[in-house]
Write a structure and sequence with these properties.
- It is built from 29 helices and twelve strands.
- The protein is 55% helix and 7% strand.
- The strands form four sheets. Strands 7, 8, 9, 10, 11 and 12 form a six-stranded mixed beta sheet that branches. A two-stranded antiparallel sheet has the order 1-2.
- Among the domains are: 20-105, no CATH class; 332-557, no CATH class; 562-649, no CATH class.
- It is an alpha+beta fold and 714 residues long.
- The longest helix is centred in the N-terminal third of the chain and has 43 residues, at 108-150.
Length: 714
Amino acid sequence: MQNQCAAAGCSSRKSDPQPLFRFPRDPSRSKQWAESCHRPDLVEKCPEQLYRYYRLCGKHFEPTSMTTDAPNPELKDDAVPTIFDDPNQSHNGQVKRSKDTAKDKETPTNAKKKVKRSEEEMVKEDASEEDEYKQYLKCLFEVVLLLGEQNIPPTCPTDGKTDALGSSNFQALLEYRMNSGDEALKKRYEVNEECCSSEQLQRLIEMCEKSIRSKLVEEVKQSGFFSLLTDDPVKISGEWYFPVFLRYIDQSNCQRERFVSFLSFEGGVDDLAGNLLSEVEGWGLDMGQCRGQAHTFSGTHFKKTKAFAASLIEKYPRAVVSLRSTQALNMTLAASMSFPGVQLVIATLKKIESFFSQTPLLQVDFEDAISIFYPDKEEKVRELREICRSNWTRRQDVFEVALELIEALLLCVDSVHDNEDMRWTDQVTHSALEISKSLADFEFIMALVVLKNVLTLTRAFGNNLQGSGADVHLAAVGVKAVVQSLKEVSDNIDVYHEFWNDEAVNLATAMDIPIKVPRSFLRKHPVEARTLRPESFYKEHLSVPLVNHVLDEVTHLFSDDHLMTLRCLSLVPAVIEQHKSTEPEEACIQVFNNDIPNAGTLSAEMHCWWVKWSKKGKDETFPSSVQETLQAADVKFFPNMLAVLRLISIVPTLPLQESADVTFKRFKMYVESTPDKFKSKSLSVLNLNHDVGLDLDSLVEMYVQTYPQCPSTD
């Protein structure tokens, strides 16, 4: 109908000299136009549908209804069609006829046949229009999904102004398709002079996002139990958002971890926790099936994240808080501290990593600086150089390594900042200066020394957590010893702090760094500045709270329920073979009595399981992880063991198998490589889940059902 006149009996088309005019959006005038056309089917349609699909040609309007001063004829705002072939069609009490058409004489029978035939033709035309519209939507969805997969922003940043699609990537791809012969887009462009508005584009993206999330949630629900994981909040369009992942075991007993959404992280602590939980519950998941949660507790967002974790476990007690395997334990503990000195250390380590990744030449200078500080220790130099060529700022022993490298680091960045040979850009020299200022600050030195000494107690424990099934089982058994060591330090903090202070002072003296209380503290407490000694300050504001924080976090992250789940790793064949003198720990496994097929046969089945794996044949290799065990051929004959192993495998503390770690790597790449102005809350879901197959026809049907009366923006 868009290319021809909608009036009954009128044959005018777009190619004719007479212009075609859209039906008005105003409901009253739209009704007048429809009644004037002598077509009952038009009267039943809503104004938005008439505006989108139907046109009237210029010969149905009085010349006075049109403007004459414009290059092309335009209707006045109050124009109403009055000139039609049917003498019985009236408007406002007046009857008018076309000046150049005589009335045809028809019998009643012929007239009925003509009307019936006309209605059938209109039904066919409507069906054809609907098919064309759906094909047009399908083209749009294809382009949106392509942009999402390639992480290409559909539109240019507009600083809060309306998106200009004319120069956007989205519009460019639509034009490319039209030039390649896409008839659905061509027709749309010819009628509306645009293929898609910015409002409709946003709807398309949101529809894809919701469809992907619905598909992921359905897959999780079919698999049963799951864990909920988050990462550091990300800033998008000036607001903070909370990335949320789901970890589960699919029907093939393979680990899966998927990015689900960015949730708004704005607002106060209490309100935010409730809002986040409400949004997660709104996805349709059975939260009673949530068996674990893990979060990245960064210092600046620590309270908010902690409140969300607490609200989740309060409502769903079996959603046990645990460590996330993608982060080293010591870095997790340090990042969760809000103490200024610790935050300075964490921020500086991030700057160092970014700084040396800019060019290999900086790395060469750094290695040369290491050689200068260890002139007679070739083995030590070789070891430190190897460490520096890896992601050493994310290691369990990062603080110990940093102390060994700090003098070489300072020499290197000072040399870059001096830039005597003019090799470096202003940006590089500025970055070097910022790092140099941090390294030469006594607050940084003191915090680094305390972190190194305290987290030495958790380093071996953290390494085991990232190891094999046997290593993690060993860590679960030995966590009490770690807690006891931390308590011993806390109880004797005066003695330990004295040693730490001496170490920091000696290092600062060697580096010519003034030993003083942070200036930021002195500004806020000018009275105390006169008598406050640095040693006393750092004990009260750093050593004591830091030790207590680590002790609290280790106790919190490794609760009794969490540890009992980890000790169920005694079911892993390699662990059974290693400890064949004792059977698996039944007391721990009975935690899952309500989640297994037949709790009554658990003891007997577990004994058979232990007998099967306790004897190792020559050259036989046993599965060493939960994931390998789940893929063992015989596991299906042990239904209770299979259920328990599936539950253990979703615990966030256990490392992901390589194939399941793809989503998190994509997420990190998206966050780190996508410029802030191009980050998108909705488009990120498409990018990080581009391998989730979406049915285009289903998307189109969903869109048509969701927006049935919004063609003006379509």
